[in-house]
Amino acid sequence: MKVSIKTEFIPLDALLKYADILPSGGVTKILLAEGTVTVNDVQIHERRKKIYPGDIVSINWPSEELAIQLEVEKE
Fold first, then answer.
1. What is the DSSP letter of 31?
2. What is the predicted pLDDT for the residue at 22?
């Protein structure tokens, strides 16, 4: 899934809410604590991690065997 942003970067929690992936920052915090979020194949634990165009964010929910991949691009 591609997500376009107009700014130089977007914080990870804002990106996930903007893309309608997660309903709140609380859910983001839980996923980060579980280690299921990666940016460019690097595990992330920072909720406010800056995501830039060209970055790829992946979320894997092990309990549901669901994976989402967001490719960020400049609008």
1. H
2. 81
